[in-house]
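sanity check this fold:
=====
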Amino acid sequence: MLARLPEVRAWQEPLYRDLHQHPELSHQERRTAGVIAARLRESGLTVHEGVGGTGVVGVLGNGDGPRVLLRADIDALPVTEATGLPYASSQEGVMHACGHDVHVTCLLGAADLLAGATDHWQGTVIALFQPAEEVGDGARMMVDDGLADLIGPVDVALAQHVGPAPAGHVAVCNGPVLAAADSMRITVYGRGGHGSMPQATVDPVVLAAMIVIRLQVIVSREVAATETVVLTVGSIHSGEKSNVIGDHAVLQLNLRTYDAAVRTAVLDAIRRVVVAECQASGSPREPEFELYDGFPPTINDDAVTDRVHSGFAEFFGSRVATMGAQAASEDFSDIPDALGAPYTYWGVGGIDEQVYRTAVDAGRLSSDIPVNHSPRFAPVIQPTLDTGTQALVVAGLSWL
């Protein structure tokens, strides 16, 4: 099947450059969806467009057998590109800074290879291209738009992500691989007044500062050392002028957890701390809490992961590594969870191997290698595309 890879590579590489040059933000991926649909039809798949807004699903039936879903996300980020590539983004302030253009290109290639070799496998391939991963609601929108009725039952779901690891290598992980993420907007209230007369006010800036300090104690003193929790206050805003004490402050924080019970306990603790600090400061109103941009945890099924790992080990040999759990988040799992299908999610390297090894040897990995969401993140085209395409084919054939 992979003997056709050079033929596929001939259109994959220019298609990748085109996608990278024309990134689209979440829920705006109309051009991208059109490119995907056209390529799927050319490969012979039945195409469904507009699923969940801008999602695309290609179905390739080939007799009775397992039904395998392969997923790629398609949206870009509000980042100004600084790679200097000749095919850099042509859209001001928008960039494929997370490698979703790689994911799309690899899945299109895998679908074409599978479609061109139906004598060698049996079952159904579902190539799913999901919008709006970056804002955490694209997967749910596809589910809510009737995905299950559209594609029918699914036996297994598979997905991958390119990252700052050596190109040509893949990495697997059993169990929790990506954290759940919750963003929270907290509004606390004071009593405004002149900066020269703080005694006549309830200063929301001081209140917010006390909350930030106290929140750090939740992780260090209320969570077991064996659990992984990341709690970050990313934004505080209050007032507009140096000599005016405002009447409220807004904090935005982000929480990363792997365990549902720990997540609930920490969210409860956040509310408890904020309410108590407001009372201690004499706040005239109860605080307000708003949860938004929630991502589910990604917890790989052990049996599915072992099966994919076995296929990878046979094909890639020493280029297979074990990946530790990451604090990053994804909404992929919303799809297999809604379909009742087990899943696994693996990593693909995208950094030139020599550049990566040199950075490691010099102790400059964190400074020299741009990571996802960086304006300098630029996976090398090869062997990244070949490896991602091969990985999807090998993983899919573990069932088909």
User: Anything to note?
Assistant: The mean pLDDT is 97. The first helix runs from residue 5 to 21. The longest strand covers residues 156-166. The chain has twelve helices and 16 strands.
